[in-house]
Amino acid sequence: MNIMLFHSTYGLRPAVHAAADRLRAEGHEVWTPDLFDGRTFDTVEEGMAFKDELGKDELLKRAILASAPYSERGLVYAGFSFGAATAQTLALGDDKARGLLLLHGTSDIAESATVDELPVQLHVAEPDPFETDDWLSAWYLQMGRAGADVEVYRYAGAGHVYTDPDLDDYDADAAEATWRTAIGFLQTL
Question: Which InterPro entries match (predicted)?
């Protein structure tokens, strides 16, 4: 598989590179664009402030420019938190998308969004302050109406970005379960 993996608002940190390496070890080709031009952050608040400073349109433009050279290959879009939201936006707009792997995040869905049984897998903490139960229920229904084939995995007691071992959110058991399930998902595409 060809995978476009987007970082969270923490920036392109070692955990993103480690995730890409783990996927490469499974035989996938993985790209990790740096939407923040080398900036990384120690807190979600700092990262969110920088993301807001750059602006949604600029970040989407950067993501599209990073993905465009590879989209003809049929990409699996993937990402962490904010990066998952970015991946979702691109996957729903790319008729050649092969799949969508969301780690720790989702995004709004345009009313007009349609896909042809796009395989989607979401991994999220339970509870998650950024992905509330009400939001996830509505998101799941909207993705289904758009034509996606969605699987949702929840991890009780894990922190928001629980796959990053350098963050306080880290949960080793939830992270390992996530990667085991995600790798299985990618093998089906």
Answer: AB_hydrolase_fold, Dienelactn_hydro, Dienelactone_hydrolase-like
pLDDT of residue 15: 97
Confidence of residue 5 (pLDDT cuts 50, 70, 90): very high
Would you call 47 exposed, middle or buried from its count of C-beta atoms within 10 A (0-12, 13-18, 19+)? buried
